[in-house]
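Hi support team,

I'm filing this because I wasn't sure whether my run with heme C finished correctly. The job status page said complete, but I'd like someone to confirm that the output block is well-formed before I use it downstream. Pasting the exact inputs I used:
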Amino acid sequence: MRWVAAILLGAMATALAAQAYTLPDEKPVTLPRGAGVELVEAHCSACHSLDYLTTQPRGKGEAFWAHNVAKMIDTHGAEIPEEDAKVIVAYLGRTFG
Ligand code: HEC
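And here is everything the job wrote out:
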């Protein structure tokens, strides 16, 4: 059973050699003020950081955000009333579109 010991030792060596990464501290995200920003902060930070919003590619317009907000609701189960979703999409389109 020497080969078993060899495999175990190999696995341990791999585990010990695993790189430890230091991640940068997460900075709180401040969204630009504007109509609807409170709704965005309230609804869109419930499951993940607001930097998911600020790091998206620009120039894709309101349609991109309408699609994205619909995905949060339909696929990820975000509970956002339709009136709020409209205001949020308008804000995001204006600010990050
Ligand atoms: C119910 C939980 C939930 C809420 C509320 C939520 N999201 Fe998400 N969101 C997710 C999940 C899950 C992912 C995918 C996570 C991942 O890939 O790390 C995601 C990912 C994203 C991404 C990254 C791109 C993508 O499509 O994967 C963006 C942009 C985003 N969300 C925007 C929003 C916006 C805008 C709102 C507010 C209208 C919102 N989210 C609210 C769950 C949520």
